[in-house]
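Ticket #4471: complex job returned nothing on first submit. Input attached below:
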Amino acid sequence: KAGVTQTPRYLIKTRGQQVTLSCSPISGHRSVSWYQQTPGQGLQFLFEYFSETQRNKGNFPGRFSGRQFSNSRSEMNVSTLELGDSALYLCASSDGTPRVDEQFFGPGTRLTVL
Amino acid sequence: AQSVTQPDIHITVSEGASLELRCNYSYGATPYLFWYVQSPGQGLQLLLKYFSGDTLVQGIKGFEAEFKRSQSSFNLRKPSVHWSDAAEYFCAVALYGGSQGNLIFGKGTKLSVKP
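Support reply: We reran it on our side without changes. The output follows.
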């Protein structure tokens, strides 16, 4: 099975712009979670989508949003970018059944905001 | 609130020496615990997980971890470190229940290996 893929791998934006990141989960996985990784804050949970519905949300401002399509692919959008949004954004997929299970991570998208 | 603490930010060990990375968690119920490893520029790879049962769990690459409820700990160990083990290691706890896919991570421990 192919792993989790994320596109693009690297992105440079300027303050005030918006950005969309994409994540394709492992085939058959219905849950996609997004995490932000920064040197200062570490790994922080953004949100999780399961069967096209947001099932859980972390403590991030409304500028961060996401969605999931019927094929389980997910996108994450950040509007009005700030310098502090520079980070590695990781996507993870799992089967998503009620039992907690292993999440498989993609390589991440490195976002730099200038 | 649930939290995960990795007390050691950076550890350096000699190749061939044993390794123990510490992890403490704060969670009211029985946690679901994970150790992930991240090489530079890469995503996270699962080393091992604990859901229930035997408190000593074996993982990939020769790693093992022991769940100690009384100490709220889930320390990662390896008897003999290889140079390729140099990476950053993250302990994480998952919340069981209706909200899945929410891992709470520790701040990570960076492992350097001396030849």
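The CA atoms of residues 39 and 87 of chain B lie 5 Å apart. Closing as resolved unless it happens again.
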